[in-house]
Amino acid sequence: MTARLLELAIVVPTFNERGNVAALVAKLDAALTGRAWEAIFVDDDSPDGTADTVRALGRVDPRVRVIQRIGRRGLSSACIEGMCATAAPLVAVIDGDLQHDETLLPAMLDALEGEAALDVVVGSRFCEGGCTGDWDDERVAKSALATRLSRRVLKADLTDPMSGFFMIRTEIVRGLVPTLSGIGFKILLDIMTASPSPLKFRELPYVFRTRTEGESKLDHVVAMEYLIAIYDRMFGKIVPVRFAMFSGIGAVGAALHFAVLWLLFRLLGADFVTGTIVATLVAMTFNFFLNNALTYRGQRLKGARALFAGWVRFCLVCSVGAVANVGVSAFLHNVQHGDWRLSALAGIAVAAVWNFALSSRFTWGRY
Question: How many domains, the chain?
Fold first, then answer.
């Protein structure tokens, strides 16, 4: 008996979705009857045992497998890894929470197999016939705002550029991987904006379902990551997004430093050196925890021991950066006899690059 050629891979990024795994595979099996497919779950080391649940299912169903990522987080990067791990000519992305309509997959598959010029088929909640389900007015308004923002970088008139449910030719994704940012939760927007020429697309309507198992991953940080992704496409080639975030947090930390110093030195009467030492420690601590939560969210340190060790390393790196700041600015001011403000800015720039590069390597383990 000759095995059928693999037609489609379905990539399912997961985090704490153990209760939905079996149900999703059963729904895919029913929707794709007669088609040759595989499901690749890309799990960000879920503490609820999602990866083990997929492995147990894979022992009895060879179409199901898992990529368990250790020390890496993020929906977009998970999708990229999953899409590069298949031999199928077409790949779909679908959430693991059962809110996407898997019965749309055969129509997506037929469209791509039947029209060679078509690159991607998108499941849309906002084209004619689509619906957002039980979304309240506030969530609809936020989504509409995000869609308007995305049009500043998008090369296509998509009604639902925020969709996480789509199918694309695998070779297109593989060709774009070196230019994908992998930031945030909107991989479709990343793909569409990374392509050097506009991708030909088609939108198919579907009704967004209500989650029944697990917890929603939507939070304020997700919204911030979306804005980061937009920034990366607009300005990332000029100033890398993580360096921009690191520097922005550093600027806020500098303002906090002056506020604490003013409080201790001018208001409470502490001597200047003591006030400066306390203000520096407060600013460094603030910068460390905010960078851990935002700039390095995918590699963030957890647990008291890891956080303390990371804080110590961060403070050591930034202390050297502070010395470099003073040294460079003093050298330029004394030797060049130029504008003191330019000398100060040069010192700040050197310290910022130093702190970012060394913190990335020795505090959060990425270079």
Answer: 2
